[in-house]
Write a structure and sequence with these properties.
The protein is mostly beta strands and 188 residues long. It has one helix and seven strands. 2% of the residues lie in helices and 28% in strands.
Length: 188
């Protein structure tokens, strides 16, 4: 982990189209944070150490509006889906976890082991406080907040209406602060 980058030089596919082998060239000077395409792999399973079926659970807000007004009907703002499940495979070492143990899944985040259901270990995502994970996971239009390849696509109906830009098309005010740079919400 965190060695740098590796260039995939060739890959071997089975007749069914599964990748059975890859040939890579290690680039220790590469910056893994700037690499767009990443590969995650697990060790070859054996009869003593088989891969384990897991379910990664993530939860969304119960309502789609930050603050309900007195005249709002709660039913109009209930999130259509509040639980997201992703089936995955994990290393055999997760079998030793006890309920309540915390585990980090690479490029997924931290999860707490919640128990086994139908021979699948279930892990619940621990919120990390990052802006992307604080945003609603429900789909707005054709693209989810989690990205174009989100597992579940659930349209959200809302009573909100569109509002014209506050600053016009070209004028975006800039502030000189010591805070982190964040892309303006007014940029396309």
């Amino acid at each position: 982990m965190d060695w740098g980058n590796a260039y995939v030089r060739s890959k071997t596919l089975s007749q069914s189209g599964q990748v059975t082998a890859i040939e890579m060239e290690l680039n220790l000077d590469g910056d893994f944070k700037q690499t767009k395409k990443k590969i995650t792999w697990l060790a070859q399973p054996t009869s003593a150490y088989p891969l384990v079926d897991v379910t990664l659970l993530d939860h969304d807000y119960l309502i789609t509006k930050k603050k309900l007004e007195e005249e709002d009907d709660v039913a109009d703002f209930v999130s259509p889906v509040t639980e997201f499940r992703v089936e995955a495979l994990a290393d055999a070492n997760v079998r030793d976890l006890k309920k309540g143990d915390i585990m980090q899944f690479e490029r997924k985040g931290y999860f707490v082991f919640d128990g086994t259901v139908d021979r699948r270990m279930e892990f619940i995502r621990i919120p990390d406080g990052k802006a992307a994970s604080l945003a609603s996971k429900a789909v707005s239009g054709a693209e989810s907040v989690q990205g174009k390849n989100a597992e579940l696509a659930t349209p959200v109906t809302t009573n909100m209406y569109s509002v014209p830009r506050v600053y016009g098309a070209d004028l975006i005010p800039l502030a000189d602060t010591k805070m982190y740079n964040v892309k303006s919400i007014y940029e396309p």
